Amino acid sequence: MADFQVVVGDDDGTAYSFEVDGQDANRFIGRAIGETVDGDAVGLPGYELEITGGSDQSGRPMHGDINGAETAAILSEGGVGFNPTVDGERKRVTVRGAEVSEDTRQINASIVSRGEQSIDDLLGGEDDE
Question: Which HAMAP family does the entry link to?
């Protein structure tokens, strides 16, 4: 059974962290970066979330250009998984595909549409940053 930590980013820069397992975690499996998920999966009824990235149990980031959920070694000029320090620098990095699988441990998401209640009201006035 899969379990994830879902980090939901708000427009104002606030991040909320949720532990998701069981049936709610199954809503994320098979989804790819850029797809939307119902906010009920993390306890935000009426909200819609877009998957923006994530990482696996080894800390490898999800890369939107890699299909599937497998790992791949790519020659990167910058972006996800590598920040060059010199102009023209390239490096081979191992990244995870864009699809959420049971190997995924953290999922990053952003809010696409809001529900009736604010997040603070749904969480009881606390933010889990």
Answer: Ribosomal_eS6
User: Judging by beta carbons within 10 Å of its beta carbon (0-12, 13-18, 19+), is residue 62 exposed, middle or buried?
Assistant: buried
Backbone angles phi, psi at 120, to 5 degrees: -60, -40
- Residue 43 CB burial class (10 angstroms; 0-12, 13-18, ≥19): middle
What's the average model confidence in pLDDT over 49-75? 93
Q: Which amino acid is at 20?
A: V
Q: How many residues does the chain have?
A: 129
**pTM for this prediction:** 0.86
Query: Strands, DSSP E only, in 25-70?
Result: 36-38, 48-56
- Residue 41 contacts residue 24 (beta carbons within 8 Å): yes
The conformational region for residue 84 under phi > 0 = left, psi -120 to 50 = alpha, else beta, is: beta
pLDDT digits 0-9 by tens, 75-127: 988 888 889 999 999 999 999 999 999 999 999 999 999 888 888 888 876 54
